[in-house]
Amino acid sequence: MSHYYQFDEKLKSLEKTITYHFNDNIFTFITDQGVFSKDHVDHGSDVLLHAIHETDVSSILDIGCGYGVLGCVLKTLHPNAKLTMFDINPRAVQLAKKNAEHLNDVLVLESSVVPGQGYDLAVINPPIRAGKSMIFSLYQQAFQALEANGILYVVISKRHGAPSTVVYLKTMFDEVSRVNKAKGYDVYKAIKY
């Protein structure tokens, strides 16, 4: 079986459209075989989005963006912010590009590392099956890419490593707190001073 972070080029494309309701907005996303949560926006991403209440955002980083849910929703809420999304899965990257076509000032990259620096808001729904070392590397890269007072939001379930995530985040970030808990997921806000 191919995992969404290890794209199988032989996997046939069967694009489809899904909808997602967030607050008073209805979003439409194109998804496909071989990407994470292709049939609906996953509960973790939904819980994460409902936990973010930042108002002054100039640059957004969506780490492991998949088909672009987190980035596209946040960009819609912060239309003047610059958005960078990246994923290791080439099909997910192409879908994220399609899903962000109607948005301005968006960069979508195929990459396994965080591109650039100077972000004030970063979000991640970690690729659990990629393993703890990969996830922790992404946390560290996010920390390095954030500017002073930058914030990283992480959604994770207790059974998938929330306790170790919190311990690791506290080795880098100045403040780490749980800001939401719903549907079996915890959302942590990590601030870099």
Structural commentary:
The structure is a single chain. With 193 residues, this protein is α/β, with parallel strands linked by helices. The protein has helices spanning 43-51, 69-77, 90-99, 132-145, 162-170; strands spanning 16-22, 25-31, 59-63, 82-87, 106-110, 119-124, 146-156, 175-182, 185-192. The chain has a seven-stranded mixed sheet, sandwiched between helices. Strands 1-2 form a two-stranded antiparallel sheet. Strand 6, helix 4 and strand 7 (146-156) form a beta-alpha-beta unit. The protein is globular. The protein starts with 15 loop residues before the first strand and ends with a strand. 42% of the residues are buried.
| SS strand fraction | 25-35%
Encode the helix/strand succession as letters: EEHEHEHEEHEHEE
Give the overall average pLDDT: 94
- Number of separate helices: 5
**Radius of gyration computed on alpha carbons:** 15 Å
| Order of the strands making up the biggest sheet | 5-4-3-6-7-9-8
N-to-C terminal Cα separation, in Å? 42 Å
| Tally of strands | 9
Silhouette: globular
What oligomeric state do the depicted chains represent? single chain
